[in-house]
Amino acid sequence: MQIALVSTSRIVAQAPATVRSAFDVTPTCSVHVLDLDGSYVPVRHEQVVTPQDLGMSARELNVRAMLLESGDLARWAQPALLRHALRASPTVLAVCAGVMLLRDPSELAELSAEGQFALIARSGETLPADGAWPGPADQLTSGSYNPHLVAVTREATSFLDLWEEMAGDPLTASDRWLDTAASYLPHRAVHAARLLVSPWTGTSARIGEAPNGMLQVDDAPAVAIDLTALDPNAPWLLNPETNGPPRVRLSAHPGLARLVARYANGIRADPVLPPRSAGRSLTSLGVEVHTQLRAAFRAALDEDPLRSLETLPDPVDAYGSQARVSVPLPPASSAPYPALGRFPAPATRSPPVPQATLPLAPGYPVGI
Questions:
Q1: Kind and range of the H or E run holding 298
Q2: Pick from 63, 18, 68, 23: which is nearest to 40 by CA?
Q3: Residue 189, beta-bridge partner list
């Protein structure tokens, strides 16, 4: 069994927890971890690779990191890791940090042999419009398939190419790309909730415990739990960022709640703390990457008819500092705030925020 996941400083605590769960349920598995920024600390005998090991240039990685949010950057990098892992095995499970494996996931890998890849439906049923989250509108917005556990075979070359292409463009970097792939590429779609229990699990799914304490769904053993959105410091909600009451309540499923608490306690007790710079990205000028600066690079990319990264400077290369500040400049009179005059106008037109409420908040014309 081959398992592959990407780690960054923002998920440096969740990635080792996922790796431990893989070795706990499948001691003989091979785990490949792509350490995007040097923050990952091995926990067992997993194989840790760097972007350079996979042939990624430092310049492209730096530019992608400026264009994409942290989660989107990890999504873009995963196909390169999967191609690397597929050299050693005909099938690899693409797992996101935060997924907790409860038993050997070989079943999903075997299902992928019926197509080029296997996808797990977010919900095996149509979600009712009852005010709970998620609902039908959320399903349309987020896509039909869960991106956090995907089985891929060597034949899925077109799938991996599409993954890399769509994840690498800010215009298409979302989980909905899986719906595009499923619309025309051969695959196996799985609707069994027990393969990946998540905040999206349908209302009719019966989540419970077996006599031995193992989690069950519809009287069958659960394979994994999706805890990618969980806040380990507030483990009473599977996803704290919702627009309504959760559809899957931990208070209604004590067995699931115990597993979530164990996972969160393990992360909080991990002696390996993230580096001080975890979660902060700085340019060569020492400027922290923020919404306006990211929007400036995206605006420059939009102005290129070919949307080529070659038109963008390396934001981390000290020798490219002057090139960076000259990314398409508007006339001085068109800049809404003089302090932001060196950025493209679209990047500076966010609504001002009252300084008395949020001092130096992005959007206010000071501190940049």
A1: helix 291-303
A2: 18
A3: 119
